[in-house]
Write a structure and sequence with these properties.
The complex is a heterodimer of chains A (about 270) and B (about 270). Chain A is built from 10 helices and no strands. Chain A is mostly helical and about 270 residues long. Chain A has a single domain, classed as Orthogonal Bundle (MetI-like fold), CATH 1.10.3720. By secondary structure, chain B is α/β, with parallel strands linked by helices. Chain B has a single domain, classed as 3-Layer(aba) Sandwich (Rossmann fold). Helix content of chain B is about 35%, strand content about 20%. Chain B has 9 helices and 9 strands. In chain B, the strands form 2 sheets. Chain B has a 6-stranded mixed β-sheet, sandwiched between helices. In chain B, strands 2-1-4 form a 3-stranded antiparallel β-sheet, covered by helices on one side. In chain B, helix 5 crosses helix 6 and helix 8 crosses helix 9. Chain B is globular and about 50 Å long. The chains are: A mainly alpha (about 270), B alpha/beta (about 270). Chains A and B meet through helix 7 and helix 8 of A and strand 5 and helix 4 of B.
């Protein structure tokens, strides 16, 4: 009896801990190193604060940060929601004819390549500073991936499936609702994952430029004002809170994606091998 | 000699000169936009209840021909009549034709039951009626217990049987099959050949079956049509004189191998 057998299934929690251990371990090592190096080299706090200072600033101003977080979250969510609605509508139109696609695609690319920081001041002039401007900027930044991914998904339908629907005399609407849209779903989900992160970036960048003062300014405003006052620990704390926001939204979209695709798409299926 | 057919089972038969053909293909030509001639001067007839195979070298146009019969593509010259109508009209008005592709073409986001009742759903049948017909079809192919499973959980052979159940649920008169068992292993293929014949007898289908596997063609059909290479024409027809129902043992009979040999020879000359 030389070999031991592992149990076929592990307790779910134990397995999760096992998988989380390496990155968490790396993080702990990194933070410890940071603290030690900065302290030993006596780096000034306005150049690079230690993790302990950052945590201190975070705890001190937690109330402001949380309000700012919710403000940025709301702006990002609205921008994201708008880009879903508009993006999918545009993709639907573009997928109907090659001519339409070729006419509109260059403008979609234009949208992608114009640096938003360049046109953001223009938007502030048109709409005024404040949340509407931030939402519009977040919307513009996150629009393109939804258009491209959804269009690709709608035009990539397996031609055998299309033939099958034709054989059963399906109407345009039946084909769209029962074939093209479900088929495009994995592509749409990819677009959503990318756009959700961009919407957060867009909201923060928008707040840099257009955020109003005071508590309702959002994380972008907090970052800019902390930088102006050389409050580096506070700035780091705000920046980390921003990435926390990005992570939350990303996990949210991934959960939605897994829920919709779990029965059938390779990306959402867990295989034993 | 009168042939008595029982109402429950019908066996594929050879041509009855008194009845009008279910499918009439008359001097059909199909040329693509780039000038390639896929089919040329192609003619044959299929009568109700027959199981006809089309065999030919790769690229000879047999799949194209099947799609023309299904009303999926136009022809450049000649005439194709299905149930006396143009294929497209026959498909739209009679909806009597079912098509089985080499790929099972199941919708991966629907479970087996959802796939089988798709044709009925597209036709606008109410859910309760549809589910009943779909479950019945699944029982006929022996897959009733996987009704809630998703296609990705099934083997290739099972997916093809679901595809057959889908064809069955729509109660067609005519079944067009384009190398449906081509991607399966030999054992599964032979087993599904037997299944197909059993279901044909129950359902009374007329079948046009495209394949490049001569052994399969001879086992299944009452007539084997040999096509030339491109541009495709029917160059020969081989009647298969083996009685139905055909059991697996048929494959060991000398008449079987003789017919297979004849078809292979004709293919070589095509």
């Amino acid at each position: 009896m030389g070999t031991t057998t592992r149990p076929a299934t592990r307790n779910g929690l134990v397995e999760w801990l096992w998988r989380a251990a390496p990155p968490v371990g790396a993080f702990v090592v990194f933070v410890a190193l940071w603290q030690v190096v900065v302290t030993l080299l006596r780096v000034p706090h306005y150049l690079l604060p230690t993790p302990s200072l950052i945590v201190g600033a975070w705890v001190d101003r937690i109330d402001i940060l949380l309000v700012a977080l919710s403000s940025t979250f709301l702006s990002a969510l609205c921008g994201f929601g708008l880009s879903i609605v508009v993006g999918m509508a545009v993709a639907l139109v573009m997928s109907q004819s090659k001519l339409l696609e070729r006419s509109l695609y260059p403008y979609a690319i234009l949208l992608q390549t114009i640096p938003i920081v360049a046109i953001a001041p223009l938007i502030v002039i048109w709409v005024g500073a404040g949340m509407p401007a931030v939402v519009i900027i977040a919307f513009l930044i996150s629009l393109f991936p939804i258009i491209t991914n959804t269009t690709t998904g709608l035009t990539s339908t397996d031609h055998n499936l299309v033939s099958m629907f034709e054989l059963y005399n399906a109407s345009w609407w039946q084909r769209m609702a029962k074939l093209r849209l479900p088929f495009a779903l994995p592509y749409v989900m990819t677009g959503l994952r990318i756009s959700s992160g961009l919407a957060v970036i867009g909201a923060i960048v928008g707040e840099f430029i257009a955020g109003i003062g005071g508590l309702r300014g959002g994380l972008g405003y907090v970052i800019v004002s902390a930088a102006n006052r050389l409050e580096m620990a506070y700035l780091f704390a705000a920046a980390l809170t921003s990435s926390l926001l990005g992570i939350i939204i990303f996990i949210g979209v991934s959960l939605v994606s897994a829920r919709f695709l779990r029965h059938w798409h390779e990306s959402a299926i867990q295989r034993d091998m | 000699m009168a042939v008595v057919e029982s109402p429950q089972t019908r066996t594929p038969s050879t041509p009855g000169p008194t009845s009008a053909p279910l499918i009439l293909v008359d001097r059909v030509q199909k040329t693509y936009a780039n000038g390639t001639v896929a089919l040329e001067d192609l003619s044959f007839e299929v009568y109700e209840g027959q199981f006809v195979s089309l065999v030919g070298p790769s690229g000879c146009g047999k799949s194209t021909l099947l799609r023309v019969i299904a009303g999926l593509g136009p022809i450049s010259a000649g005439e194709v009549l299905v149930e006396g109508l143009s294929p497209k009209r026959a498909r739209q008005e009679r909806a009597d034709t079912a098509f089985v592709f080499q790929d099972a073409t199941l919708l991966p986001w629907r479970n087996v039951l959802g796939n089988v009742d798709l044709p009925l759903e597209l036709r606008g049948q109410p859910p309760r009626e549809r589910r009943g017909a779909a479950m019945q079809a699944l029982e006929t192919v022996g897959l009733a217990e996987v009704a809630r499973a998703y296609p990705r959980e099934l083997s290739g052979g099972m997916r093809m049987r679901v595809s057959l159940a889908r064809a069955l649920a729509a109660h067609p008169r005519l079944l067009l099959m384009d190398e449906p068992f081509g991607s399966l292993d030999e054992i599964t293929r032979q087993r599904l050949n037997g299944e197909l014949l059993r279901i044909c007898a129950l359902a009374g289908w007329t079948v046009v079956f495209v394949t490049h596997n001569v052994f399969e063609a001879v086992f299944l059909s009452s007539r084997v049509l040999v096509m030339s290479r491109r541009p495709g024409r029917v160059v020969a027809e081989v009647p298969v004189e083996l009685a139905y129902p055909r059991l697996p043992e048929v494959r060991t009979m000398p008449e079987y191998s003789g017919t297979v040999g004849k078809v292979i020879q004709l293919l070589g000359e095509a």
